[in-house]
Design a protein that fits this description.
Elements (H helix, E strand, L loop, with lengths): L11 E4 L5 E4 L6 E6 L5 H14 L3 E6 L5 H7 L11 E5 L4 H14 L3 E7 L10 H12 L4 E7 L21 E6 L6 E6 L2 E8 L2 E3 L1
Parallel strand pairs: 3-7, 3-8, 4-5, 4-6, 6-7
Antiparallel strand pairs: 1-2, 8-9, 9-10, 10-11
Helix pairs in contact: 3-4
């Protein structure tokens, strides 16, 4: 597969009330492999990107074993029109992975204006990503003309790296992001292709 050209234009923001700047991601049709440290907000980042895609007029497909927490979803989607939620489609990622991904691809191609497809918690929390999962995810990436976000737990690095993105040499992603929690507070660090972005996680989402 020929990978899409990656543009490092991620330092964008919007302000809801003039005092809070929300970090914005590049939704440019790339496939993003996001490895996260435990309990540091990976799903929240995905929800925030979904909010951004819908605000831009797009549609979002979300696939995971469990739906996003309703309270967290409401916090990040606060201030949006009720009709916006009709452009967020959630699917349960259960059973045969290849069939689940094929159903997701079919839905993405059938529904108009799909801008973002999110796979959250699509693989075991530790160890190697199973071959059938890698194969299914790569099929999703190969046939996409939308931004794809793959969210999974990262592995502990044995060197100076902040985190290991498991399967980074097997998944056909265009970019690898690492989300870490450097301190025991709301501060987060997002590594975008080895560039460091300092963020703070609040009820409304990630700010910078």
């Amino acid at each position: 597969m020929m990978k899409k050209k990656w543009k490092k234009n991620y330092l964008r923001s919007d302000s809801r009330d003039g005092s809070m700047e929300l970090w914005k991601a590049p939704l440019n049709g790339s496939a993003i492999h996001l490895a996260v440290e435990g309990s540091c907000g990976g799903t929240s980042l995905g929800i925030q990107m979904a909010r951004q895609a819908i605000l831009d007029g797009g549609r979002v497909l979300w696939a995971a074993p469990e739906l996003p927490d309703g309270t967290r979803f409401s916090q990040i989607f606060s201030g949006m029109e009720l009709t916006a939620s009709s452009r967020f489609h959630a699917m349960n990622l259960v059973g045969n992975m290849d069939q689940s991904i094929q159903s997701l691809v079919n839905a993405a191609k059938m529904l108009p204006g799909v801008a973002l497809v999110v796979l959250d918690d699509y693989c075991p929390d530790s160890g190697q990503i199973p071959k059938d999962v890698v194969s299914a995810v790569n099929k999703l990436i190969e046939g996409s003309d939308w931004t794809t976000l793959l969210i999974s737990k990262g592995g502990v690095a044995m060197d100076s790296s902040p985190l290991i993105a498991r399967g980074r040499n097997k998944l056909d992603a265009d970019a690898v992001w690492l989300l870490t929690r450097p301190e025991d507070n709301s501060k987060r660090t997002l590594w975008v292709d080895e560039e460091e972005v300092s963020l703070r996680l609040t009820e409304e989402g990630f700010q910078h």
